[in-house]
Amino acid sequence: AKKSGRNLVCFFDPKMEISIINRVVLERDLLIALEHNQFQLYYQVQVDSSNTPVGAEALIRWNHPQRGIVSPLEFIPLVEETGMIIEIGQWVIDSACRQLNAWQQHVNTAGLSLSINVSAKQFHKADFVDIIKKSIDKYSVNPKLLKIELTESVLLNNIQTIIEKMNTLAAIGIQFSLDDFGTGYSSLQYLKKLPLHQLKIDQSFVRELCVDSNDKTIVKTIISMAQSLGLSVIAEGVETEQQQQYLISQGCRNFQGYLFSRPVPIDQFESLIPQIA
Ligand code: C2E
Ligand code: CA
Ligand code: CA
Ligand code: CA
């Protein structure tokens, strides 16, 4: 009896209860968010080595009625777990394509590429390719301007199916970038087989680039590996000119980070482009 009493106490651990309630509330609020259009895309510029804008990454935000802007770090893991990432991901694809259509019609933004983040669960859905194609058609998007960022976690599935899906999309011009490169699982054998266009150096290697000789070595290796695989390379999390200079000296030609701009709402992004062009 004593034992089950202890179990009972454990079951009603107040901290645990709060976290379950929080989770339930969060899940409910996320469903409401979808219905009420509370998601928003922010855009972070990507530049070349002369700091000319070449594209942007779309980063989701949740505009919560009480909490204000909520970071994706606070809800993406949960929506990946519950499966809600499918609907949210579809919203991201639709919104990004609608935005690309608008950019294609304006002189300042024509030719800018737009990168979207796609979760493993989303990519592995049977209709992923169709969903992308439908949005591209719906908004007459030039497929060459749409870039899909995948993380190495995507590659943990059946590699043949992954290659087929990527090939189908790459055949119509869609580009693929391997996000957070160097932080996860990666086999060079696979890298060679995938129709990738870009490796994205994770910001954890860029952060202390100018003081950490290990990070210098890693970055150097990623860049030369990308070059020998015929891939372009972009560094994320670039915050200082020194970091950018070092990256340039090693052959990196594309950059993203607070040095150029934080992720910003669409209006700010569109007024920023002519300024830094
Ligand atoms: P990520 O794809 O690696 O995106 C880069 C993150 O680094 C972004 O955080 C960006 O705001 C931040 N960042 C950019 N430049 C700098 C810099 O110079 N310094 C520092 N310290 N940080 C910088 P954010 O926007 O909070 O997004 C976090 C993560 O959430 C993303 O990491 C991505 O994994 C996920 N995410 C965002 N939007 C989406 C989405 O639409 N779909 C999915 N599946 N995941 C998303
Ligand atoms: Ca990304
Ligand atoms: Ca990243
Ligand atoms: Ca990351």
Automatic annotation (TrEMBL):
Subcellular location: Cell membrane
Protein name: EAL domain-containing protein
Signal peptide positions (record): none
Residue span relative to the full protein: 521 to 797 of 797
Chain ranges of the EAL domain: 23-277
